[in-house]
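call fold target=APC family permease
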Amino acid sequence: MLGAGVFTGLAPAAAAAGPWSVLGAAIALLAAVCAASSSAFQSSAYRGPGAAYACVRARMGLLPARIGASAFLAGQVAALAAIARVLGDFVLPTAASQVAAAAVLLVVLAATAGLRIRGAAAWLWIALTLVVLGLVVVICFAIDPVPPMPVGAAPVDSAVGITGAAGMLFFAFLGFERLTAPADEQERFRWAVVKRGTAAALVVVAVVLLVVDAALVHQLGWSRLALSPTPIRDVLGAAAAADLAPLVGVGAAVALLPVLLAAVESFRSTALAVVRDGDLPQLLGRTGGAGTPYLLDLVAGVAAAAVALLVDPIPAMAFASCCLLVHHALANAGARLLLSDGPAWPMRGACLGMGLSVVLAMSMPISAMLATLVVVVVGPLATGGVSRRWR
């Protein structure tokens, strides 16, 4: 959360729906709330790494579990690449892809060495992110915007793209499973703490999204925001504050480092569960001196670095969102079966989350949907080939 989705995701959302993207943010928040609720119940029933995967496998069978796991792992790799490319755009725009690849590999090495950002360090990093975004918001509202130049095309203001905008903005809410479904039992919180903490985190992200969106629109307008590949940097130039761009860029890049680390840990959790079930080579689960699966981390890092070198951040973000929406559609379906004899409202929330995830995934760009289709076809075939089990 408070990563690439906030720094870059508002631009493709504006391109999809213009002013209606605000409603898209509300739909994305609702989908995230449903997914987080399902994740929390699954984690309480299936302890350990990959709780959603374990629930889908137990409740729905082998094939849905493989589809969901394949979509999740591919989505996390694309998310790593997208976050790293946004970081690269802030550090060195002329060589963003190379910086992104290097950043991914360095973070993977740090994660493999056992680095974890917890406690006061985590709060300081969150504070840094909010300071950077707060500075951008103050600049946008403190300086009168330049009147827009007349353009031939009318501003984007179609309500048709609301679900497409919601699908892109769903990326900004990802990360809740670090609280709702921790892989490490020592990090598990009491149920009341999980509910309050998750609700607070989702609300904070939604508020930050809306405030930053309002600031960018005030300074750029909907049309310019929709066309901007790096809105946080571009808005400083538009507000005659280009001198602050290096400071904001360094702050944003540093703020994105723990987001990369969190994405690595999320990938690792589900991947270890798949290795445990024999659908990935057991060699990948081998741990080093720090107790981390170094080969698994290395595979994820190399794959993400390759994607970062080849794909721009917004297409990578769209693909990641589409894959992870497919995963959450299946995870919500598994939670619906898990809760069939349990509380009524969580079960209904799982049903709503399943429907929303499907609708949002089907509203993503065609290229993202086609790439996701390849993943959900090839992934189960590959994992079945590894385990030689098909039922």
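return ok
The mean pLDDT is 91. The longest helix spans residues 191-227.
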